[in-house]
Give the backbone structure.
Amino acid sequence: MDYIKIPMDIEERSFEIIGEEMGPHNFSDRELKIVKRVIHTTADFQYKDLIYIREGAIDSALEILKKGTTIYTDTNMAASGINKAALKKLNSKVECFVAREDVSQIAKDRGITRSMAAVEKAAAEGVEFFVFGNAPTALFKLIELTKQGKANPKFIIGAPVGFVGAAESKEEIEKLDVPMITIRGRKGGSGIAACIVNALMYMIAR
Amino acid sequence: MDYIKIPMDIEERSFEIIGEEMGPHNFSDRELKIVKRVIHTTADFQYKDLIYIREGAIDSALEILKKGTTIYTDTNMAASGINKAALKKLNSKVECFVAREDVSQIAKDRGITRSMAAVEKAAAEGVEFFVFGNAPTALFKLIELTKQGKANPKFIIGAPVGFVGAAESKEEIEKLDVPMITIRGRKGGSGIAACIVNALMYMIAR
């Protein structure tokens, strides 16, 4: 069988096809890199209309990544989708706090969910870069903590998917005055959250 | 803020909403569990029309899972999306061969991609349960090996996503006489592949 076997060639050709098919838009060059990568990850052109990239958000994200940071993710899946080679070049790391033992213990001691304990722990440890691809409850928790002055997010990717709370969680997070990229409505997911991180990293390290 | 905080409650309510909104269908009860979980993972009702569940495929998958097996995945992301507690109950494990050192070495020695070396290695080690959520090249490789009698897949999830080779890889795999579940067309992804495995496991262990 004859097929393209080189991953980078596949990606380049895919981005060309997406550009040809996506139709008119008002995205900047940098925004377009993010939008195309989301469509590349999902084969779903609707994301063109669902993505919200707040003005200044890309600059804020790159500023944090350039100095090296710990990226919080709400799932192991989002963490595993983030490119480790690019992270390393940026002296950054990704951590899914929900998998940590001390977080399990906090959740048990206080009778709260691990998702919520994970956000509290990340906030307490000064995490600035938050990535949500799954859990509306975690996103709601970050909103609460931020309003209480207990969390200081400098950049948020809000992309929970689902039918209960997901759309609402993204409406609520947009009320915070924080640089962010969200996927509006029910759609989203860990893969999408991860690929937005990758699109940002690839602007400065690949 | 008032929001549902219990993951199992969220899932149950989500499945109800999906049932209400998905409209008429001809799925069996077991098929419906898979279809609903895919829609739950993506918030995309189009998967109702894209999923192909071959007759007997669910029985074949459950038979393999019941005896305990090693599940091959083409990405770490698919592996990380598969429920570890359910796997453990089934005396099964998941392995993303592409991340293995011996696979890297084979790829380097023979000048082939790691994706292809990973499938070869899995086939040589007698893996029966293959899960593809990303790489059309890996899927094509399994087709080649199966035709050559060098691989013996007993169940395949074919869900690569993308614009170059993904749809074609799924058309080709369907020509094999093997129990399988595929996502037709361009759509798919690691999260979808993983959630199909979970839907199957939850029929016998949760």
Remarks:
- Chain A has a mean pLDDT of 94.
- The longest strand of chain A covers residues 70-73.
- The first helix of chain A runs from residue 7 to 21.
- Chain A touches chain B through 46 residues (CB under 8 Å).
